[in-house]
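Human: Note token order:
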Amino acid sequence: MDSGGSFVDRREAEAKLSEIIRENRFTIAVVFPLVGALLFVAGHEAWLPAWLAQNPFLIIFGTLVMRSPLVAGLLPEIDRRAGIALVVLALYTYAIEFVGVTTGLPYGEFHYQLELGPMLFGTVPAGLPVFFFPLVLNSYLLCLLLLGPRVNSRAARFIASLAVVLVIDLVLDPAAVALGFWAYDGGGAYYGVPVSNYLGWMLSGTVAVGLVELGFDWRSLRDRLDNCEFMLDDMVSFVILWGAMNAYFGNWVPVAIAVLLFAGLHRIDRFDFAVGQSVRGTPR
């Protein structure tokens, strides 16, 4: 009886969260990243008081809000197997980041210049999964829609998802370096980012995508995407925020890549940027 009641309570909570997301899609997916971009610029230009400029807790709060559509979309799909996969992925994320910061492997020598919230062992952000998980999950979900009939191939899903993860980091890292979130000790040819970073991402991305593939039922995720119109809104936020930041710093290659990501979202009719409404899928 208690078990049944807990199941009902969970479904009610999931439905309520989805309702909140659905009613505030434009605010979450468009307004929040635009405000975030303005705050980043203001902080970078020292137009804000020191305690507010690039405040790590404000960054985490804004990130959590922008992640909320992905969370609400995925919650009904998280069973025991998926939960274990996500726990393992979190532990792996902390481990490889700790190794990366302390040894320079596999990304290259780098260090955090801004503490993004509490730091574990003074080295790795405690909120790291909040920043990392969506890069992988959004890539996987996007590919489930873009691959068409080829989605039935595990190899196609894996290779395409890993490629999108790398593409996303081609947008993220240059802007993060320009903002002073972290820096590579020897710099790098790609807007201050070395090639070794992307070789490292091939390793970390391979493990991460593999865990998502093993942990989730891709067919169930595909059905959920068809019936949850906001599930990829977090990627909309990503394109707006980091595309805008790269444009501000004159990083035009990452801007062009962000535009390509937008084109991918447009192709699958995930978001109407004019009104903040889905043009594909029916609410569930």
Remarks:
- The chain has one domain: 2-267.
- Residues 2-267 form one domain.
- The first strand starts at residue 110 and ends at 112.
